[in-house]
Amino acid sequence: MNMKYSYDYFDKLGDPDEQFIKDFIKDLKDLKILYDEKDKIDDIEDIDSLMEYIKGKMHVKGKMQADLEEIKIITENESQQFKFIFPEIYNESTVKWKNDDSIRKLINHCINKNKKKEYKYMLVISHLLPILVENSYKNLIDELVTELTYTKVPEEWYQEEGSNKIQKKESYLSIREELWGYRFPRHKVRPLHSSIFDRIEKVPRHQVTLCYVPLPGLCTFPNYKDNNILFPRGASPFVKLVMSNSDELLDEKHASSKIFESPFFHAIVKFKWHIHGRIIFIIVLLIYLAFFLLFVTSITLDFNKDKAIVDAIKNYTNKITIEATKSYITVITATIGSETNSMINNVTIAETVKSNIGVITAAISKASIEVNRDKLHIITLAINNAAIEVITSEEINQTIINLAINDATIAEINSNYVTEINKSISNIDITTLNETINSTGGRLIMIVCLILVAMAILLLIRHTIIVVKNGFGKKIFTAPSTYVLIASAIVIVITGFMELKFLDYGSNIRVQFQAVSIFLLWICFIGLLCLFKKIGVFIIIIMHICRRTLWLVFLLCIFIFGIAHSMLVATSMSPPEFDDEKNSPKENTFDGYGISIYNIWIGFINAGFDYLDPWIKSPYMILTNILFTFFTSIIIMNLFIAFVNNIYEETRERAYTEWTVIRARVLVFLELAVSFPQEKFFLSFLIAHFGRDDKGCFPPTILYEVPTQKVEEWFKSKQSSNETSTTNEESSTNLFLVTFCYIKIRAGPHVIVNLASVHDKKSTILKLL
């Protein structure tokens, strides 16, 4: 007879109430699982205390009692002779996390209860999973994941509330993509979640079977009496699972790898993405793109302003140069020329003072280049002073015409020149230059960008505090993306301050910071694109290739540095070949270590060795060139290509899983940052958020669709594997019984008594034999 289930039973399936904890503790006592008479287990009232108790039983301080008894048995039945191997090596005394058999019994008890339709017992497994992952119980996790994969929805879940009538469909047609998820139980008021993206993501109809995640409470946040909205504490088991892997890339040897590969994990991530992750990501992406456009616009306007200022300064410089030239020629003509000077005589004078005019022009041009372009009075003063003071400079006093004139005439020329140039400067219009310098450019937009950056920094600081408060600080500070974000924020803020003139290190330094800022913004944009499957999969492959080829690249760099250093030493004392066309030695192409490295790198990339042309007849350079080409272009490059191809093939098979884990990590960060202990609070209508007690976002469990053919193939392979395992187990049991009898005959009854208390009987029997 089918049981009648109420809606409240399923709705609270993920809530570990006090009565359930008491029932579970009673089971531990009755079955003697992780329980001793001396344990004070009756004081446990919540799931956190229960998990701490189980962790205490898993963690062993020092050697396990079973290991000590095992050594005692072997010692009693063997002569006291010197052992060639230290017993401490194989008695597992250094392993602090044990009790695999007891944990396995606990897991099996919960699974059996679940099969008996007491579904809430799997709540313990949900909270136990992160602990198993953290302490590397990979063997138990792999067994558990295999048991929970493609768990079909129980037929009782199809019935109506308060009724025994069941309308179950073993399979049905669907147009949703594989592993599409739904919350369970359904909401009493809200309709089935749907969005415009769901309508786009339809696939051709196919036969599916409805499965569920048999881990109630996996996605549920703990119900702490915590009203701290700014820095809420508490994390769901799902959050702990995702954050268990400190590396941004998935390690296939990590204890959580089997969970991340499981279909129910993919279904959970897909469900969370459709429910709340996607809309939050789109909002973040749009805000980022808006900021990107504003920042680029500000830099572009600033660049246009700088260009306009350069043009205006150049125009003003040309005017000053022309006036300075006219003034000097006028003064020279009036001072050393006769009253009857003809045009021809004036030209002669101009040719004579040509060197002086060149000195004046060069001084004015140099001042216009080195001048600070941000303030009008500094620009005009620097250029004007250069035009005035050059007349008394050492350079102009050493020209031919000045050396031919007496000091009194030179003093008169200089005085008249200063008077004449000041008169000309006062008549030059500086309105255009003034307007160009005082234009706002991109400053107002940069102020908006800095406000957005300040808001983003505050949010990141809040998020970091939340992550650290929940015990995941190490995970966030070991991720390279964290430091990319920090570097981006710092560089952008410095760039903004430079553009607003709060920091003034010159236009050249500002341009360098602007270039670095743009590059980092593009890197961050690529990081956001990782959440799109078609792009993210390839980015993950590239990250694996970069990481795993690091040592090969390091070896290549050492080889290039070595060749560059060797060639630098070889060419330092050897003169280059003689260039017959120019009738001079050829240019030294190894002038410094940096240039030497650059030459070798260009030769490695382009397989061109033009830089060796000045030493083409040197035997050492020819031999080095041949060896370098052989080891780099032939051996290392082909090895690199083959290695990259192998990495690609290995990574491509699990790239989708790794991309899902990255998306899950982003979802976790969003949940910790945007979910609050209470849904309604002051200014809640202004802040995008959702409550942690919202069963729509964090349901007790999740249903998901799987192609029927895939489910059938899975159960067939599982059944075949179980049959093989059963056969092997029966053979092992028979062998154990035979061995047991043999030991009883040969060793005596006292060994059998001691054997009963041994933790690992199989290994002990093998040692006794």
Automatic annotation (TrEMBL):
InterPro entries xref list: TRPV (IPR024862)
A GO-annotated cellular component: plasma membrane
GO biological process per UniProt: calcium ion import across plasma membrane
One Gene Ontology molecular-function label: monoatomic ion channel activity
Keywords (A to Z) from UniProt: Membrane, Repeat, Transmembrane, Transmembrane helix
Keyword Glycoprotein in annotation: no
Transmembrane segments: 279-301, 444-465, 477-498, 518-543, 550-570, 590-609, 621-644
Protein name: Ion transport domain-containing protein
Gene source species: Rhizophagus irregularis (strain DAOM 181602 / DAOM 197198 / MUCL 43194) (Arbuscular mycorrhizal fungus)
